[in-house]
Every structure is written in structure tokens, then in C-alpha cells.
Design a protein that fits this description.
about 45% helix, mainly alpha
């Protein structure tokens, strides 16, 4: 994904936005410049964790692909709760991004649960 602020209807659970990835840019003084806090970034990070719990991406600690469906369900439910609790307070782009992420994660969960 080129930008997490783009609200596209595809699987966002394991994509890496270049401006928000772990490779934070450094300022002139050598300090890291952290990304701006946003709902989209938070959703992206939770969705990335779902990707790991579904075994779609490697766990960075173990270096292995591991499936933990109860943890995946918990994280998807957490995203659904965020969707409910922030309803009416999101931008149209955030609405579309969150809806697309949840739809894709739910489909991936069902596929992995079979």
C-alpha cells in the first residue's frame, strides 16, 4: 500500500506504508521523527497484528508464521469496537479505510478458520 490514508478495499492487514513503517526518518540531530498519530495508523498496526495471528506474516520475534485464531478474533473484535466507538467522529477517508480493513480481515479469518 502506498499510503495508509488511501481507503482502498483490499487486504490492508500486512501492507507497509512507507511513511509510517518501523524505519522512522531521522532528523538532523539524529533523533527519530515519529509518524503523526492517527486513527488510520492505529488501525494499520492492529491489522498488521491480525496478519501475524492468521499466519500471513512472520512474527518478528520468532521469525515464524504462526496461527493463533483466538488472538486474531480478539484483534478483529477490537477493530470492530473502535469502528463502533468512533462512529460519527471519523472522516470519510477513515470510514472507508476502516470498513475495508475490517471486511478483508473478516474474510481472511473465515478462510483461515476452515
Amino acid at each position: 500500500m502506498s499510503d495508509p490514508h488511501e481507503a482502498q478495499a483490499h487486504d490492508h492487514s500486512h501492507e507497509h506504508p512507507h511513511e509510517h513503517g518501523p524505519e522512522c526518518r531521522h532528523e538532523h540531530g539524529g533523533e527519530r521523527k515519529l509518524p503523526e498519530v492517527s486513527l488510520v495508523l492505529h488501525v494499520f498496526h492492529l491489522a498488521s497484528q491480525v496478519g501475524m495471528t492468521l499466519g500471513e506474516t512472520e512474527n518478528p520475534v520468532t521469525g515464524k508464521r504462526e496461527r493463533d485464531l483466538p488472538a486474531a478474533r480478539f484483534l478483529i473484535d477490537t477493530l470492530a469496537m473502535l469502528e463502533e466507538k468512533t462512529r460519527g467522529n471519523r472522516t470519510p477517508e477513515e470510514d472507508e479505510y476502516l470498513a475495508g480493513v475490517l471486511a478483508n480481515l473478516r474474510m481472511a479469518f473465515v478462510a483461515k478458520s476452515r
